[in-house]
Request: fold
Amino acid sequence: MGGLTVQQGRDVEAIARASNYEKHGTTFLGGSFAACICPKRPCGGVAGDEERPHCPEHRRTPAQLWHWAAECPGTNGA
Reply:
């Protein structure tokens, strides 16, 4: 159904709250797009609410992989 799966024992709502509902977007290779001028997070990605409308990459709405801020691989807590 819709391709979604639920991992047993994973409380997505708690992770979202711990992230203050912030997600980071990265390319399929990790990091950000070459011409991206948006502020970067420790993982090299961009917070979804910080994508700049005049960014040469994000104005094209490129496909990104998203992870919650609380699970960011660029922080010590992840």
In short: The chain has a mean pLDDT of 84. The helical segments are 12-18. Strands lie at 23-26, 46-47, 65-68. The chain has one helix and three strands.
